[in-house]
Amino acid sequence: MDKFIAFLKASWEEVQHNVTWPKFSDLQSSSTLVLVASLIFALMVGLIDLVFENALNAFYQSF
What we know:
Blueprint: H1 2-17, H2 24-61
């Protein structure tokens, strides 16, 4: 248990003194980039799904 407490203390010390936190504007721009990329990816996957669904429906109705 002493090792675990020492680990927590060392970790907290590291976070307080040695970690450089990004600026809020950097976080905001990164979040916007992730949101836009996620939306583009979702639209692409949805479009591919729609194309495959229509293609398979056309294929199955041909029989």
